[in-house]
């Protein structure tokens, strides 16, 4: 066998392995969507049924019992709001760290990131009590603030890496041109890092959308997001797989479609601008 | 327009001092070139004048004002960067207009000044293009244009030609010289290329390791280098040095050595020669030849001749200085020129 043939075979094996892993990841989602179209009886049948007559009764029931659109709207408002607030804080902060970095810049970033390693439940009590005292329980406002804060470290880190790729001379040239710090950020840094900011925002929106812990604990019927809606279907009535699958499908669908449309930008954000 | 005065300028990063007390007077309208090997502090010095680098101690004055604490944009200076540093997301017009916009200049004044600068640099046709779609030479013109529109008292150039190819470098060098003639502004130019320094400068400042080695006109530096460093830095190929062992027909003190430029050596007979060398290699450049030789004591040196010597490789050749004034004497310890 020639070297070329060997490398072809290696490539083929890698592709097959990648497909297998991808299918493994995708299978639960596929099964969830499938189950959402079954009756409760079909959902728990053994052996599981792959072919059946699909029904929309689960979806109808959900819309009857709850207000899906309200939860979806809450999800949109809190994800976009939380991301927006985080960006307003992170852009100037990342600018300062990227262009006026000192000895401790990296350590400060690491320290910020380390807060992501703490279990959220550790601060549940204080945050719950604070929200209660300020009358923020079950409001979208509290989720916007919490989402902004929990995503801030990761947004900072990604933006920091993007900003550092801007040649320093361009900022020096703008300083020679007499730009104020505000104009430097809005007219030079932001346009130049636009792709990075957009993909960071997309990533943050996805993270906010999927956030369940704070939504379940701090909100109820007024400001609950889709994960809270899903959770409400799982506990009180025992396990109704078909309905649970249907509501989960409804919760996932918007963000999956959104993620699929913005795939390119998301991948860029996740690779931290390392490949350029 | 204004001159620049620098007094005991020092720069330290923590405990490490990189500029060791520079004094310099740059007259109004003068074209001054800072030259030196990499790491000599020439760019740092320029950036301190620009205000991009903090001053540890000493003063920089532009005109009559000390500008140590003045923001870069308020110093009346404009800088052309080595990497051009154009704003990639703006058109050429916007690049040129950006500084004027920041200063809240009226739009028709902006149009007038941008068009005038574009005219001088012949970039009027590219005004609506983005820098991405320009060649290196065109980008460099835009960078120079961005400096011109601000109508500065002092132009600062930080190795502006080093990203251009050889042909374009010569052309742009000429354009910069013409620009200086036309604008009559003070210009400070940093380069490590001594040809640029020699051709452009009214005055050259040779720097080494954060210190000024010599300040003078190109011809002064060439004919009367203050020390052996300047002697070798200015001129190409660089000056040959010989100590007493290699010098014949003449006694040279042990504490001294002789410097002789390759272009100032002529073939002579043994009786009138000052040095000799075994022929190693001949590089023929058409217009002239560079002859590489090794002296009896193993010192390699180069002689620039019109035609190649008609002797085989390994043969001993004798050389005399073209004129006796071409002979430079230096102190062995300090490297200083001896009069």
From TrEMBL, chain A:
Question: Which cellular components does GO assign to this protein?
Answer: plasma membrane
**BP term (GO), one:** transmembrane transport
User: Where this protein primarily resides, as one coarse class?
Assistant: membrane
Membrane spanning segments where?
12-34, 71-96, 108-130, 142-163, 184-207, 240-262
Is Phosphoprotein given among the entry's keywords?
A: no
Q: Which Pfam families match?
A: BPD_transp_1
The name of this protein is Inner membrane ABC transporter permease protein YcjP
ABC transmembrane type-1 domain segment(s): 72-262
Stored PROSITE patterns: ABC_TM1, PROKAR_LIPOPROTEIN
Q: What family is it from?
A: Belongs to the binding-protein-dependent transport system permease family.
Going by the UniProt record, its keywords in alphabetical order are: Cell membrane, Membrane, Transmembrane, Transmembrane helix, Transport
Subcellular localization: Cell membrane
Lineage, highest ranks first:
Bacteria, Pseudomonadati, Pseudomonadota, Alphaproteobacteria, Rhodobacterales
Superkingdom in the source lineage: Bacteria
Instruction: Give the way it sits in the membrane.
Output: Multi-pass membrane protein
- Organism name: Pacificibacter marinus
From TrEMBL, chain B:
* Keyword vocabulary terms for this entry: ATP-binding, Hydrolase, Nucleotide-binding, Transport
A Gene Ontology molecular function term for this protein is: ATP binding
Pfam family membership, one: ABC_tran
Its EC top class is: hydrolase
Domain spans labelled ABC transporter: 4-234
- Hydrolase as a keyword of this entry, yes or no, is yes
Q: Does the keyword Nucleotide-binding apply?
A: yes
Q: Highest taxon of the source?
A: Bacteria
Cellular component GO terms, alphabetical: ATP-binding cassette (ABC) transporter complex, substrate-binding subunit-containing; maltose transport complex
Instruction: Give the residues annotated as coiled coil.
Output: none
Q: What is its EC number?
A: 3.6.3.19
**Record's family?**
Belongs to the ABC transporter superfamily.
| Protein name from the UniProt record | Maltose/maltodextrin import ATP-binding protein MalK
Q: Taxonomy-wise, where does this protein's organism fall, top ranks first?
A: Bacteria, Pseudomonadati, Pseudomonadota, Alphaproteobacteria, Rhodobacterales
Q: What gene name does this entry carry?
A: malK_2
